[in-house]
Amino acid sequence: MDDMHFGARFFVDQLKVRLTGPPRRLLVAGCGAEGKEVVYLAGQIKEAVVIGFDIALKEALHNSEGERWKLLRADVLDIPFEDASFDAVFYYHVIEHVRDPERSLREIARVLKPGGSLFIGTPNRSRLIGYIGAGTSWKNKLAWNWDDRKPLGTILSPAIYARAYR
């Protein structure tokens, strides 16, 4: 999977330098319609069982699994796992699509083990690079910048914001 996007490759690199060991259970929250990141991450992190889910996962892929990976159709606002069941969560380019971002972070915090790691990424539409390659009009891009002027701390509750950025 040489075409895997930058975020998944960067995540694998960061695991090597930031954690004392690879996660044993990794959750990919919002793995897309085809779950390609899940398969890629399972291939890269040999010690981990990787479980991915997405509300838009193709129905034919629901409950599919391979060696050390599984795909589910589920919603990040109601994650179908017990508390403290994952060592790490990969939540990349998803939060901007969720109708209740704060609730999604509470759910992720619930399933993340104490001391676990959350890797979250979201587009920065105010940077020039965000405009290159985006398949939309300049009018939409300017509207994005207008909408994105609120800092994350004003969108999320202080408790979520503080926990996410410690």
Task: Explain what you see.
The chain is of the alpha/beta class and 166 residues long. It has one domain (21-164): Vaccinia Virus protein VP39 (Rossmann fold, 3-Layer(aba) Sandwich), CATH 3.40.50.150. Helix content is 33%, strand content 21%. The chain contains 6 helices and 6 strands, in the order H-E-H-E-E-E-E-H-E-H-H-H. A 6-stranded mixed sheet has the order 3-4-2-1-5-6. Mean pLDDT is 80; it is low at 147-166.
Which SSEs are present, and which pair or pack?
Blueprint: H1 6-18, E1 25-29, H2 36-44, E2 49-54, E3 65-66, E4 69-73, E5 86-92, H3 101-111, E6 112-121, H4 138-147, H5 152-155, H6 158-164
Parallel strand pairs: 1-2, 1-5, 2-4, 5-6
Antiparallel strand pairs: 3-4
